[in-house]
Amino acid sequence: MNLKQRFLTQNILILIGTIVITSCFGFAYVHFYNLLNESHVDGGASHAFIVVMKSDDIVYNSEDFTVLQIKEILMNLSIENNYYEYENRRYGISEENFHIQDGDNYKIITLNEIISINNYYSSFITFVFMTFLIVFIVASVIVQKQYMKNIIVPITNLTNETENLRIGELETTITDSGYGEVRELGIAIEQLRLQLKNSIYYQQRVDENRKFLISSISHDLKTPVTSIIGYIDGVLDGVADTDEKKQYYLSKAIEKTKMINTMIEDLLLYSKLDLNQMTFENEKVNIVKYLENCIEDSSEEFMRENKRILFENKLSTSYFVIIDIVKFKRVIQNILDNAKRSIETKTGQLKVILRETNTSIIIEFKDNGIGISIHDLPHVFDRFYRADTAREVKGSSGLGLAISKQIIEGLNGRIWAVSENGQGASIIISLKKVKKGK
């Protein structure tokens, strides 16, 4: 119900309620008035007195009138003035004479109180009017309190909270109390506050990422760019005076250029993931076959460096996971590249172990390299964090594991590292498992 309808309905209810209550009080007034006066208003009298006289003697006197008072009554009757004032009330006088068989004459004088109908209706109308006014005021006060609670106070609060928004205070939640449109207004302002807060948050993130990218590019690209300039200058200045040296210098320049390209791609990818600007095209994938394909693609590189990669499938049956196959392939490749750099030639070995829990698929990448120190372990997923010189290998942007973490969390999974210095390291991924039919 909107405010216009609510106002109209409540005003009508106030009027009807006031009329009904006033009518009830009016009927009660008439009833008790007649009850107190022991007769109906239209009966014309409420008190009656009787005086019985035998000749001039008083036989019966219901009100204990004095002789003088009875004489005044008889005098009024004799002059045909059929009214008598008694105790500030006016009475009508009637006389009836009759005879009995013994010859005695009796006279019955009746005094009936005369009620002024005009005074009755005047008091009744005054009573009804005052009752109507009091009931209307009480009802209006009650309704006004409701208006104050559900309209005026919420609007005042919204005004204050909107003023806080204007000066940049975005942490206070906007209340959504009140009737109809007032409540909807509060909800709309709260949504506006959240959108404004998110907008400012993302703008700050964009600014931070922009500064971060600039500082990272200027710091991490300085060395390869300097190397490229040096190699090219060597060719141009004749330092490389043989074809073999020229080939070597140019190949090194190309290698450093590829390294720069990898770093820029990783920076852009990380920035998009960090700002939630990367969409995920998820699909159900057989995790066993998927890992087998990924390992097969990397096996040749491991063999070329005289290192081994092994796959251990400990699943009781085939399970599926919901992933973006392209982005998850990037995660696998980053982890494999990191592990390959950390293990030794000939003796180096990486095990990819696939197992399960009640609800999850666990993928563990366990190497027999130098491991990660307890000091460095909490930071392995930080951007541009390199634990030691053994990991500062050419071609690495320092964002591989940070990107992997962003992708895994975007797939509603978890990734963490386990290691003891000198005993190898394990990167573990947990994904929710689904069966084929689901």
UniProtKB/TrEMBL annotation:
SUPFAM superfamilies for this protein: ATPase domain of HSP90 chaperone/DNA topoisomerase II/histidine kinase, Homodimeric domain of signal transducing histidine kinase
Molecular function terms from GO: kinase activity
Domain of life per record: Bacteria
Gene3D superfamilies attached to this UniProt entry: 1.10.287.130, 6.10.340.10, Histidine kinase-like ATPase, C-terminal domain
Residue ranges annotated for the Histidine kinase domain, each copy included: 216-435
Cited InterPro entries: BphY/WalK/GraS-like, HAMP_dom, HATPase_C_sf, HATPase_dom, His_kinase_dom, HisK_dim/P_dom, HisK_dim/P_sf, Sig_transdc_His_kin-like_C
Location, primary (coarse class): membrane
Keywords from the UniProt entry: Kinase, Membrane, Phosphoprotein, Transferase, Transmembrane, Transmembrane helix, Two-component regulatory system
Subcellular localization, as worded in the UniProt entry: Membrane
The enzyme's E.C. designation: 2.7.13.3
Catalytic activity: ATP + protein L-histidine = ADP + protein N-phospho-L-histidine
HAMP domain segment(s): 149-201
EC class: transferase
TM stretches of this protein: 12-32, 120-143
One Pfam family matching this protein: HisKA
Protein's name in the database: histidine kinase
Organism per entry: Sedimentibacter acidaminivorans
